[in-house]
Amino acid sequence: MTTRIRIDATSAVPPYEQVRGQLARMIGDGRLPVGTRLPAVRQLATDLGLAVNTVARAYRELEGAGLVETRGRHGTVVAPGRDDATDRLHRAATEYAAEALRLGVPPDRALALVRAALDATR
Fold it and tell me: In degrees rounded to 5, what are phi and psi of residue 5?
């Protein structure tokens, strides 16, 4: 698993977002199918040379997006019940977030732009 995740220390994208984005893409394209158990937070952090809190944040954000679920002592697994539209929209949102970071647009401004675009389509 860790051979698939790469952290670019020179990137403007924070390490937690690199982990989250790469795992989200692997889930979205089926490389990590439903029920796949992710490495323990501590183990992945050690493998990637990151702080435990960095990987924990990535996992929390994946859980918040409904891509994984944490089952206590049974670990974190890829969640069932996703649909293709949600997966595609999540990938688009991930790309948008990365582009906003690359361009130096603050998160609150990037979110305001999305809200304005959604409001304009109503």
Answer: -95, 130
| DSSP one-letter code for 76 | E
CATH number assigned to the domain with residue range 15-120, chosen from the 4 options 1.10.3660.10, 3.40.1190.20, 3.40.50.720, 1.10.10.10: 1.10.10.10
Pairing of β 76-78 and β 68-70: antiparallel
Neighbours of 46 (CB within 10 A): 14
pLDDT in tens, 21-71: 999 999 888 888 888 999 999 999 999 999 999 999 999 999 998 999 998
Which residue is listed with tokens 């949600």? 86
Q: Taking the alpha carbons of 56, 60, 65, 69 in that order, is the dihedral positive or negative?
A: positive
